[in-house]
Amino acid sequence: MTDAANAPGALISIPALLARNVKSFGDKTAYREKEFGIWQSWTWAEAAEEVRAIALGLLNLGVAKGDHVAVIGRNQPKLYMSMVSAQMVGAIPVPLYQDAVAEEMAYVLEHCGARFVVCGDQEQVDKVIEVQETVKGIEQVIYHDKRGMRKYDHAQMNALEDIEAEGRASHQRFDKELDARIAALTYDDTCVMLYTSGTTGRPKGVVLSNRNIIEASKSSSEFDHLRQDEQILAYLPMAWVGDFIFSVGQAYWNGFCVNCPEQPATMYENLHEIGPTYFFAPPRYFEERITLLMIRMEDAGRLKKWLFDKVMALAGRVGAKILDGEHVSAWDRFLYKVVGEYLILGPMRSRAGMSNVRVAYTAGEAIGPEIFDFWRSLGINLKQLYGQTEASVFITNQPDSEVRSDTVGVPIPGVEIKIGDNGEVYYRSPGTFVEYYKNPDSTASTKDPEGWVATGDAGFIEESSGHLRIIDRAKDVAKLSTGQMFAPKYVENKLKFYPNILEAVVIGAGRDHCCAMINIDLTAVGNWAERNNIAYGSYQELAAHPDVYATVQSHVEEVNKSVAEDEMLSGCQIHRFLILHKQLDADDGELTRTMKVRRAVINDKFEDLVSALYDGTKEIYTETEVTYEDGRKGKITATLEIRDAAVQPIGQRMAAE
Question: Which distant-in-sequence residues (6+ apart) come within 8 Å of 406 by Cβ?
């Protein structure tokens, strides 16, 4: 450890940053939460007082250094405070996905050996009680929301409010012990353990140290000039590394305010109220918002729709240039900044809750270039961030005036990247994880002795700009039997730009052509059905409608035209497709909790559909197991139509040139 890290008062832990924030701007707002329709606030000084009281309460419960404390629930200040309290006593917070089913929770709780679990509400408590039939190490369950909890057996259960009160009452007994534990924290102690999404198998526990989190937060904050007066909305799953970095790491490093929505369902409303200056969302969020905006415009009058189309055409031509400070004619600038801003662009940004956004990120998986360019054309400084849990999020980012849809930017300061012989991207940085918990083999196969981490992504570094370009997941990039490159995500992102398409899975590795399975967006297509007086009783019925198939076919064929223009990936055009009879669902194992497609699961589960796509079948009967909201299993049946799509001659553009 460096001398600076050993110095008294060094910022080597989240509790140390909290103490600094209290001293430097203790009266500034640290947390805000909407409850019962009213925004409640905590200053840094008030938050620190509550964090310490909870920490004293944890000592009173017997939490030992190195214990794992699981935290399950929606984004709430008290749950963030609980994580910092656990760190104060030398324990390790382990946030879990609140929408995880009991079986998924059981694996994580068993694997990390959690003795203590902090739950947001009764729903999470019930899941923990269910898993205790098989997970035996849990000693205490702590809950924040008391509603519905009165008749539970409290022999091994306590309200967080009571833990906090007991901590205050017992401070004379535990003050010295708590101060000693805080003073004993080092830069290389574990800060948090976060589980991967489990795209290819069981989730792995990623051990991240104080050094990892703080160095990544520091360098990324300096990269985009984050300040103490930023406002963010904490709505992403607390178990995701992105939320931990933004809502804990960067929030504590910079001292900015973390706003928590009243409920997940009110997120859009609360986003509009807060008007964050710094915003992060995965690609699916931006896709969904485009869908909602387009639906509203479809319902608009003819004049308004005409004006919208005109302004968006102008915005697509000059919006990003104005944002990047490039030259634009005075007339175009006037039309964009005055006419377009007042009539269309300003209201659209306001509707999306992004009127005050200074910096916005998207990451988690690749975003379609059309979607990315759309948001930047509105004047929103949206950037593509490339990272992963094992990197404490940040690997590369896009500098202002160097933002492009086809790259993920340059390395964050302190990060090194290189490309392996097989095209895989490697990195090393101060944010590089310590290890996979209880999994030395995976640690060794991912991180070499020199600290280089294999990302699992294929890409290359542009010689002219130094920007990194990601092609796809390395395991997903393959060859067609014709020898041409197969990169499914590239095509899937183009398909998802269309509001009618929610998800797409492209197949083709080792085959002579590509096919696709598609999910329609029920909101967008349902709105179309209502406008056209088309009755439907279910997703399945709407997905099978001939007009829906015709619309999706037109989208597929438009994408084929676009893909045909890419010399490297022109072989990825879709020859045949079907519309799935069910939406891909994390509860059914088809998506991760961060909404990434589990290709191996889908290929296995829908093996009959994949075979039909390639054997010329025009329709196929299928049965599929599904999980209902109450956890019960059932089966749905359907007869699916399979359609051919027009493709463009490969190399057409090359021949013309």
Answer: 369, 469
Three-state DSSP state, 548: helix
CA gap 272, 276 in Å, rounded: 8
Q: How many CB atoms lie within 10 A of CB 435?
A: 20
Return the beta strands (E) in 326-452 as ranges: 359-362, 382-384, 386-388, 393-397, 410-411, 416-419, 424-428, 435-436
Q: What span, in angstroms and rounded, lies between the C-alpha atoms of 93 and 115?
A: 11
Tally Cβ neighbours within 10 Å of residue 654.
10
DSSP label at 648? P
Is residue 185 within 8 Å of residue 12, measured between CB atoms?
A: yes
Question: What is the pLDDT at residue 199?
Answer: 60
Task: Just give the CATH number of 3-280.
Answer: 3.40.50.12780
Q: Which amino acid is at 74?
A: R
Tokens representing 561?
A: 């035209």
SS3 119: strand
All structural domains of the chain with their residue ranges:
3-280, 478-656
Output the CA–CA distances (angstroms, integers) from residue 155 to 22, 70, 138, 141, 152, in the order listed.
36, 19, 13, 10, 9
pTM: 0.82
Sign of CA dihedral 339, 354, 217, 243: negative
Q: Is the pLDDT of residue 364 over 80?
A: no
SS3 assignment, position 214? helix
Residue 145's nearest CA partner among 238, 33, 45 is: 33
pLDDT in tens, 516-553: 999 999 988 998 898 888 889 899 999 999 999 999 99
- 633-640 long-range contacts, CB within 8 A, separation 24+: 636/540, 636/581, 636/582, 638/540, 638/544, 638/581, 640/544, 640/578, 640/579, 640/580, 640/581, 640/609, 640/612
Q: Residue 601 pLDDT > 60, yes or no?
A: yes
Dist. CA 356–CA 354, nearest whole Å: 5
Q: Is-contact 354 380, C-beta < 8 A?
A: yes
Burial category of 429 from C-beta neighbours within 10 Å (exposed 0-12, middle 13-18, buried 19 and up): buried
Cβ pair 546, 487 in contact under 8 A: no
CA distance 567 to 222: 38
Least confident of 2-11, 94-103, 470-479, 581-590: 2-11
Residue in the structure block whose two tokens are 């829906």: 548
Half-sphere exposure of 60 (CA within 13 A, CB side): 21
Nearest residue to 11 via CA among 226, 218, 180, 194: 218
Domain over 478-656 is classified CATH 3.40.50.150: no
